Structures are given as structure tokens and as C-alpha cells.
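look at this stuff:

>
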Amino acid sequence: MLGTSTTPYDLRFRLLGIPVRVHPMFWLVSAILGWQDQHFERVVLWVGCVFLSILVHEFGHGLTSKHFRDAPWILLYSMGGLCYSERQGTKGQRLAVILAGPGAGFLLFLVTLVVWTILLGISPREHLALILFLIVGVKPDPVALLSAFGKFGLGETGMMFWAYYFLIRINLLWTFVNLLPIWPLDGGQASQIISSVVDPRNGVRRNHILSLVTAGILAVIAGVRTSDLFLTFFFGMFAYLNFQVLQSMHDARSMGVGDDDWWRR
């Protein structure tokens, strides 16, 4: 996998008893995603916010895994973050570990709101107006929105604004995307556990079909409606990955491993 191999330039440290390794590709890809011409300081701030947000997310997985007496370790690489565990645990434990990552990200989102309320006095109404404008693109409360921008002082040119925007965008929007039922995102892994409990025979296969359809539809929407090449590639990659898994399952059954007529159900 791109950006997972060990290099002499890896950043390594241990935090809360969990080893962490950061691959150089993590910094490069993060900078590319947040690149803004003539605003290098914003790029550095973006990379810092991505690092903090993904690290908190992975520590949500890691600390929960450690609670279940596992020995996890974390890797930040080109595609985001991974939390490795030595043991699988029960399905309930695995579900808790999976959901703890998005939970930690959402907690960081709430902490961001509290910190900016303390520092700048932004009210809940102003937070809501900012979030709807910055993330959704609507202005339901122009008065509150104007008041919130005024509290940033320099408005959209100030670093306090950009730090707020980046942390909100990453820990709210990315958390939502990560909870979509698309394997191997956290939402897809969680839905796979649930579907395997509900339907032990066909649950995993049906979850991959759901992942393929969901990712495929979102890739088409991203390509046609938004012309966003990154999102198109992102969802398209997951659609193809789930197609490969389904094809492998089909090939295994065709060689006598399990029932061969699953494709027709």
C-alpha cells in the first residue's frame, strides 16, 4: 500500500502508551490536498490540522482497543491513518473500536466549538450559522453569520478563522464521510459486523454489494455534479476495491468453497 513501508524519514513517537509512526507521504499528500498558491502559511496550518485530527481519530480506535487489553499501534500514511491491533476480540469489541474513531473526531469538533467560544465569544447561534455557510453553503441567518465573522477580527484573512474552518471541515465533514456504509471506511466496517450478525451466511457479501453501490453512486455524483476529481477518484477507488472483493468471493465459490449461486440471489 502506498506510503506504508518503513523509511529512514519516518517520524516515530509514543503517546499514551501507543506507538505512532508517520510516513513522509502523509505530509506530502496533506499539503497537496490543502495547497493554496501564495498562502504557504495556510498550507502549513492545514497540514497541522489534518495531523491533529487524524491522530485524534486513530487514538479513538487505539485507546478503545487498549481498553480491551490489546496492544495497538498507529500509522499515518498517504491515505490517512491506520490503527493496527494484534487481536480481533468479540464482534461487540470490534464494533466499539471502529466507532470510537469517528466518535473521537466528533469530540474534537465539539472541543473546537468550545475553544472558539472561549477565545472569541462566538455564540451557539453564530457557530450554527458558520457551519451551515462553510460546510453546507447556505446562509439561513445572515445576521448571526456577519456577527461571527466580525468576531474573527480580520475575517477570512485571519489565521484564527482558517484554523476554525479547517478543524470544523475535517472533524465534521470527514467524519460524516467516514461513517458512510462503504468498506473499508469505518462505517463500512461497522455495517459489515452488524450485517454478519443479522445474516451470518450472506451478510459480508451483501455488505460489499452495498459498499460497491454506495461508492459507485457517489463517484458518479462527484464526477457529474461537482467535477471534483479527488472525490470522484476517492469513491471510485472504493467501488473498485469492493468489486474486487466480490469477484474474489465469487471465484472462491466457483472453486467449491461455499455455495456457487450467490451471484443470482
In short: Residues 260-265 have pLDDT under 50 and may be disordered. Strands lie at 11-15, 18-22, 73-77, 80-84. DSSP finds nine helices and four strands in the chain. The two ends are 33 Å apart (CA to CA).
